[in-house]
Amino acid sequence: MNAPGEGTVYFDAKKNVWFAKVPIGKNQRGNTSYRKRSAPNRREAEKTRRRLIAERESSDKVVSPIVKMSNFQEFALAHLGGEARNEVREITLRGYLYLLEKYVFPEFGAKKLDELNSQEISAFLVRLRTKVSASQTNHVRAAMSRIFQSALSHQLISDNPIRRTKRMRRKEDDKTTCQEPWSLDECKKAMDVAAGTEMDLFIHLAILTGARLGEMLGLKWKDINFEERTLTIRRTLVELRGARGEGGVRGSPSFGPPKTPKSVRTLTFGKQLHDAFLRHQTAQEALRANAGDTWAETDCVFTTASGSSVWPSNFSAKFRKFLKDNGLRHQNPHAIRHAFACNSLTLGIDLPSISRGLGHTSLDITFSIYAAELTDLQNRATEGLAAWFESSADN
To answer: By three-state DSSP, how is residue 130 classified?
Structure first.
């Protein structure tokens, strides 16, 4: 039993994951607020609990200068540049900063935190929705909510006004970037066309594992076990650049942990992917020989001609060109992830196995994303059963 204020660790049987939880103060109702993070096992949860305590004590030391900052922009910049770095991924942090600088600071930056109310924020979000998508508006709303929640934790305000605003919904006439995933036949055609090309391994990996783009580009050869035919996803390659870079300066691809603890996973693969790995390895050896002394040894599976990590955006551009040149229906890399899930469901693979393969935190997430496909399969099952019993009755 830990001493009061030192938090606890516990196992959530429903989510099948360990959690560390420590108190961080009181909310406006006088109830204790907690900071919580997941961990793969009890030992790591204990380490996480100690880190959370250290972060809490570190943030307590910087409360004084934060308290002096009265307007929204000053506090937001202090929060995102300080305590938030211990709470969210760097790419998420820069996304928040980009949205706040582009949309929110011009509107509310100079206003005091306690002057902002839900009515004017709601009116702002409604106006913003006429210019950008519902998804983008909701991202702006989420960024603002994080700032207000931090101010609430520091007792600079008595309420988070974002809680009384509404999320935006997509309209029927809105443009969408959603794409119909490739069918099994389209996937087979793509793999056949890709064999022996620059996109050979990527196409096979995406279709046969459903891994995220950053996870695939973050693979290293030490993650591949050819004897057991397994690959382990341990990291992701993220791109930080442009307005989302430090001071607006273009950054560089960097490795980070996968999206969630459950995203760290080991996947088995069959002969097709095994052969694609071998072809890719041969092609990379040729690149290494051509580069000579200029080759940068990174152990990365996917590299540039000089051996360094690839830019995800550059890779996506090459992928789009490959599809166009070979007459394949356009898909972004993430849509192929959906093709993996939908085609797996079509083949009768159970949802828990698909969820684990995708690296989702919980089965509920997988179910919510693919509810429509599951409903269609359910209807096919009931119709099939009904048809069988009807034909049986006729006999």
So the answer is: coil
